[in-house]
Amino acid sequence: MDFYKEWLGIPEGPRPPDHYELLRLVRFEDESDKVRAHYKKLNGHVRKYATGQYSVQSQDLLNEMAKAMLCLTDPVRKREYDEGLGREFEAELDEFGRQPLLDVLVRNGDLSREQQTEVEEFADRRGLSHRDAVVQMNLVKPTKAAQALAVQLGYSFVDLDDMLPEDDALDLVSRAMVKRNSFVPLFIDDGQLLVAVVDQIDHELEDELRMRYEVPIRPVIVTPRSINQSIAQYYAPGMRDDAKISSTSMDAVSQKSTGKKKSKDKKSSSPIGFDQLSADEKKERKQYGILFICWSAIIPMLPVILKMMIPTVGLKLAAYPNMASFVLAGISLIATTFWVTQKYWK
Hints:
Blueprint: H1 3-8, H2 19-22, H3 32-46, H4 55-72, H5 75-84, H6 101-107, H7 113-126, H8 130-136, H9 142-153, E1 156-157, H10 167-170, H11 175-181, E2 183-189, E3 192-197, H12 203-213, E4 217-221, H13 224-234, H14 247-258, H15 279-298, H16 302-309, H17 311-316, H18 322-344
Parallel strand pairs: 1-4, 3-4
Antiparallel strand pairs: 2-3
């Protein structure tokens, strides 16, 4: 006996029927109240057979309808079920008009809708990005996660094993700078500098790189492991501790973007100002400036210090007037302080 047809009026066809046909709903019905109303009505009808000779079949059908109702009233499970039936949803976009990383992974079949919810909860609890969360949960390989992030951000994904950065590009940034910001400059392509990054590039970093290389920046996404390996390879201790800001280096990189050499009679670029230095370079220059100021006062006072500390030296320098040392120290301190604050730190 076909209980679906006899009790629920479902026409002949695939058995068991899908959830919508079982609950006598229009396919892909999205109103949860309507789903529950249909279930309640059919549930009452099938229960009429619960005490007769078909009690077992009645109970089985009641359980089947309950499972269908629970699935169609759970937004996450319903969406996954509908997609299995061939329903196509419009891509959900974030506040920037981009498709979220987890949706990209679901669309590609690397993640289920149920797993997507688990990832979101895990990421919120741990304070992680969705990319890091799916990797830590061992749901997606790092490469797949990086590729999905590239789609979200509208960047290209590259494998650094297939890329050979050019020395001219590497030389223009220091080891401290690439380690602090986790990036590697690759080379200039079609008038743009390719920069390998693990996430969206910071605006301040982009502006600084654009100023250094004098060309627009085009970020490309790589895996965190590959960026760390590249930094260790191309910026090992003792390598590129300081960035080359010479006009020769700037010309070499710029020539790759234009394919032409700069004219010899073109005036050389002006020296890099204090405001154009990186944070580490500014800190280093400030430390040197303080040392210059301190030593400008200490050196003129050496005769006085030596007379106080070493008696034999004090006898030889007895005729040396202390007042002269104080005067020289004052003049030197004022002059050096003026030069450091008005020139060296400008």
